[in-house]
Specification:
332 residues; Jelly Rolls; 2 domains; 10% helix; acyltransferase activity; Trimer_LpxA-like_sf; Hexapep; transferase; repeat
Length: 332
């Protein structure tokens, strides 16, 4: 009994400490995190940040370390025991990480001046390349992900794999170095318009959606909730000067629409159902660095629609502000 009381005391202290950390600008954590008593989180440098979404869980002896980098983990993602995530790494929502996974954006420099020892080369020129793991990925036991790798949405990485190259969405990879050994589904073609009521369209609602709705598919009939300020959708390569978006808003919002870096009209949305046909504005703009965080395989195979949600009256974006029913090229 005394041992159990001691364990509960320690765990409560860990949870309290975690919430204290969340008040610091260098560490931001969402609601209901779960940390074990040997979890370790550290940020070094004035520019470093670790940002964690809601309902995140982290196993025994797992580590999150940032050195003047942004380490970001999405909501509903879980890391099992002994996972080591270091540096400029972004992990999406709803991901499953088994134990003993290693991901780092940094590596040692041995070729800058090969006559020098490696430690001295590191001091002269450091190497860091950001890693991005998209939503809904499952990484098996002992996976190593090398710097600069992009792992597409829905991918599965087999146990003890070493990922040295980009992984296409919804593929199954394994081996050393890893290669494609299967597919969860065909992801080479999308649709001119994607609709929330068609199951085959769901994978192309690529970022920013509420995965908890898939616990009750009936909730999808009225739209897929957008719970990030920037959402990404993939449609067929068929760029026209018109795009149609249908949805339901819970309050007054403003939507900025981009397709392949081109800016469409901004639209002001009042509370309730909306259905807009938007025209292309012939100027090239960048939006929230989204296109810098997608692999060339994605950009070359699909038209990428980015929707930025902006609030009125200086309010911050809140979750579940609006739902999307359909989006794409439909001039009817």
């Amino acid at each position: 009994m005394k041992i159990n009381n001691l364990v509960n005391f320690i765990l409560n202290k860990i949870k309290l400490y975690s919430f204290k950390l969340s008040l610091k600008s260098s560490f931001i954590v969402g609601n209901k995190p779960q940390f074990k008593n040997t979890s370790r989180i550290n940020v070094w440098g004035k520019e470093g940040k670790i940002i964690i979404g809601d309902n995140f869980s982290m196993g025994f002896n797992s580590e999150l370390y940032s050195w003047n980098d942004n380490l970001i983990i999405g909501r509903e993602t879980s890391l099992n025991d002994n996972c080591k995530i270091y540096g400029e790494v972004s992990i999406g929502a709803n991901c499953l990480f088994a134990s003993n996974i290693f991901i780092s954006s940094g590596t040692h420099n041995f070729s800058y001046n090969p006559y020098l020892p490696i430690k001295q080369q590191d001091k002269l020129k450091s190497i860091s390349k950001g890693v991005l793991v998209e939503d809904d990925c499952w990484l098996g036991f002992g996976v190593v992900v090398m710097p600069g790798v992009y792992i597409g949405k829905g991918a599965i990485i087999g146990s003890n794999s070493v990922v040295t190259k980009d992984v296409f969405p919804y593929t199954i990879n394994g081996g050393v170095p890893s290669r494609e050994i299967g597919k969860r589904l065909e992801f080479n073609n999308s649709y001119d318009e994607i609709n929330c009521n068609k199951a085959e369209h769901w994978p192309f609602f690529y970022r920013g959606c509420n995965y908890n709705q898939f616990n009750d598919l009936n909730t999808l009939e009225d739209g897929i909730e957008i719970i990030d300020s920037t959402a990404v959708f993939l449609v067929s390569q068929n760029l026209t000067n018109k795009i149609r978006i249908k949805g339901v808003a819970n309050c007054k919002i403003k939507l900025k629409i981009f397709v392949n870096k081109y800016h469409f009209e901004e639209v002001q949305v009042n509370s309730g159902y909306f259905d807009f046909n938007l025209s292309l504005v012939f100027q090239e703009l960048y939006c929230s660095n989204v296109f810098n965080r997608l692999s060339n395989d994605i950009i070359n195979k699909f038209d990428v629609i980015v929707v930025e949600t902006h609030m009125y009256d200086g309010e911050e974006f809140n979750k579940k502000i609006w739902k999307v029913l359909s989006i794409g090229y439909n001039e009817n």
